[in-house]
Amino acid sequence: MPIPLTAVDIAIFLASILIVLAIGLWAGRKEDSAQDFFLAGRTVPWWGVAGSIFGTNVSAEHLVGMLGIGYSIGFAQAHFEYGAIAALLMLAFIFLPLYRAMGVYTLSEYLAKRYDERSSVLYSAYSILSIVFVRMALGFYIGARALSYLLDGTPLEIGYTSGILIFATVTATYTIVGGLKAVIWTDVMQSTLLLLAGTFVAVLVFSQPEIGGLGGLLAKDAALPAAEQKFHLYLPTDHPQLPWTGVFSGLLIIHLFYWSTNQFIAQRALAARTEFDARMGILAAGFLKLVIPFVSIATGVAAGFLFESRLAAGELAALPLPDDAFPLLVQMIVPAGYGLVGLITAGLIGAILSTIDSMINSGATLFTFDFYKRYINPSASDRKLILVGRATILAYVVGAAGIAAVIYTDDAADNFFLKVPAQLGHFVPGIAIAFLGGILWRGASATGSFWAMLLSPVFSFALQWGYGAWAPGSSPLASAARAVLGPEMNFLHRTAITTVFAFAVLLILKGRPESTDDRYTWQGHMAARTEPTRAFWRSERPWAWLLGAGTVFMLVYFA
Known about the structure:
Elements: H1 7-27, H2 34-39, H3 46-57, H4 60-72, H5 79-102, H6 107-114, H7 117-150, H8 160-206, H9 213-222, H10 244-247, H11 250-260, H12 263-270, H13 275-289, H14 292-312, H15 325-333, H16 340-376, H17 382-406, H18 416-424, H19 428-440, H20 446-469, H21 476-485, H22 491-508, H23 522-528, H24 541-557
Helix pairs in contact: 1-8, 1-16, 3-8, 3-12, 3-13, 3-16, 4-7, 4-14, 5-11, 5-13, 5-24, 6-7, 7-8, 7-15, 7-16, 7-17, 7-18, 7-20, 8-14, 8-16, 8-17, 11-19, 11-22, 12-16, 16-17, 19-20, 19-22, 20-22
């Protein structure tokens, strides 16, 4: 039965929204220049970078979506966290030095200088479309769905559409007023709330007598038939959702795009006061990422045993859909009357807000600098740029909220978390190859970059259609492909194959690189550096080695 929110729960829930608004408005009270509004004046310390990167990435998708996948599929979902570490290290030590040295506002500025305007505009267009149609709309969808579930039967009961309206109003208010500075400082608070809420739910789940702690969960899982066990990282190559061959190929490309070539992640590092702060913030966010598989995914696996037990005891009428597992878990195990439901709801709200606000700020930065300033008003003043940025934020919020209300309805299909990378996987390979080739290979040309980015989505959609239309048994090759990859091509395998295609385009159309300035390649930049290097033990490098070693340990231990 649902747990009604008490007066204390309601007070905590409402206070969290008001505090977020207050922090956002206070932090952005003095936005006098474009650098202040879009890059927080480049004054953010390492812990602010860490909190904002973590808050931007870890949202309701993780509290709700990842827990649901842990419940329905298993611990293999942890590859979405462990694989991210490699890409974070590449951002910190390969990509970031060039971005910061060039003083860019948007990553498309790098493509414009390294290649030409064609790649730059294409990147911005792809990014804006994915931010509005996928990322923001997803935040509105999964947040409103969970919130309406949690508040069902309480004095604060709301519908799905009303939930979308709440998120849209709150995020638009402080992001329009305060810019990136407001986003970053609210992200720090919201990341703290998220960790508190997620950890609290995990502790309660593992303490249930049906689970018996992490050791009890591992023992229960090991007692199941091998085909039903969920505490394994590596699933068969023909697994429909998370094959191990896909997570070590296509998923790594998605991680590379998301963490190293993605505007709304890199923008936080660009706002850091020093390169050391930027790197330490990235690494600290990486350590926080190592916690998520236990806070969310393992908790989802435990929830499956708990639901089965309660179903057998007659306390549940049916097993929930994956995206409904988290709110049902809260209603089932959190004691009422102590404000705990309000705290968890506040954490959920904070997680959603911290992701949406980052998306709309970064999307507005892309439009303002890559389209308005570059093509419409090159001589625009800082005041004019801030005005355009604010108007763009409002347009994005209205558009994404409408998409969530009309397309991503509250009765949408389950495992929504996996649908996002599946959609983005059509566009990711060309972008990742353009950046990676541009930074690491001096011979990469503007023509090769543009056509790799433009043709990759076409190839990807054609590959997906062609594999499905390829009649089983029509040839030995068709039979062999389905024996390895399954009856339908998983999006991770599709992403990997498309990446090979994108690289081939970049390689074949190498021509004569339009830019021969070595400052735009990693090797050239490092050779020209004049800043003194910190001693090893006083630098960020020991933390990077520790983060990498911890990730490798997890990948081996849970094999």
